[in-house]
Amino acid sequence: MKYRYPLLASAVLGLITLAGCSSWLGKVNIFPVEQDVALGQQVASSFETGSAAVVLDSGKHKQLYGYIYGIRDSILKTNLLVHKNDFPWRVRVIHNDTIQNAFCTPGGYIYVYTGLMKYLESEDQLAGVMGHEMAHAEKRHSTDAMTREFGANLLLELIFGTNKAQLLQVATGLAQLSFGRDAETEADNCSVDWLYQTSYNPVGAAGFFEKIQKEKNQVNVPEFLSTHPDPGNRVANMKKRWSEKGGKPGQTYTERYKKMLSFMP
Question: To bridge 209 with a disulfide, which of 102, 148, 151, 231 should be the other Cys (CB 3.0-4.6 Å)?
Fold first, then answer.
């Protein structure tokens, strides 16, 4: 295969070889930040046009998108994200009430299912989940996990547009991408740290995990999300981090959240 940027490709392939001979893969991100954005663009485009996902039109659902972008902006205004200005942090809502999930591509393309929004009980819970998913992009866990899942060679082909056939498969599988225990813990910590700098209850994400722990046999939550690491441990760890930071209380905005639900199809 031919790349538009041969020097970059050579350097990355060299790192792939090194990673294959060691335990480095997943610990050292072999892609420059710019390629996270390029990959995210490719994946987002394929996911929205080639999969069965129905993405709500932002022009037709202005109130809904205004609401969810307000949550995103609250997180970004903390100025705690290194890649605040590197990534687009674009949000899209997927119309599927049977799935309680959200995910973020490399480069900051955020997807939230209507099933998750209708399942949650308050705005701080949604903010906590969004913060967690944004952290996977901010900390570049997504690229690391995709490298392990699909292989660095395939990701290079997708970045440089030389393997369109595999792009849809990768894009569709991204919602089910599994992260390691350390990555999940770091994302949980970021969610607490970021929300701590806002008016939200800093452990909003813990409310989500407490809910799925009680109702895990009644909701269509991806298995890895509810069991890896154990939700009970995640809740305890988030509350411990919140307490260590001072235990500042915050708002749940429950009534405002209920009003938002009326905007949804």
Answer: 231
Q: Which amino acid is at 225?
A: L
Q: Is 131 exposed, middle or buried (0-12, 13-18, 19+ CB in 10 A)?
A: buried
Distance CA 79, CA 174 (A): 27
User: Which residues make Cβ contacts (< 8 Å) with residue 3, sequence separation at least 6?
Assistant: 9, 156, 160, 162
Q: Beta strands of the chain (E only): which ranges?
A: 90-94, 102-104, 109-113
- Bridging pattern class, strands 109-113 and 90-94: parallel
Domains of the chain: which residue ranges? 32-261
Q: How far apart are CA 129 and CA 134, in angstroms?
A: 9
The tokens describing 182, both together, are 């350390």
- Distance in angstroms (rounded) separating the CA atoms of residues 99 and 261: 16
CA distances from 200 to 54, 63, 92, 191, 195 (A): 30, 20, 22, 11, 6
Rounded to two decimals, the pTM is: 0.86
**24-63: pLDDT as tens digits:** 334 457 778 998 998 899 889 988 988 788 999 999 999 9
CB 248 within 8 A of CB 121: no
Separation CA 88–CA 106 (nearest Å): 11
Q: Which two tokens stand for residue 56?
A: 């709500």
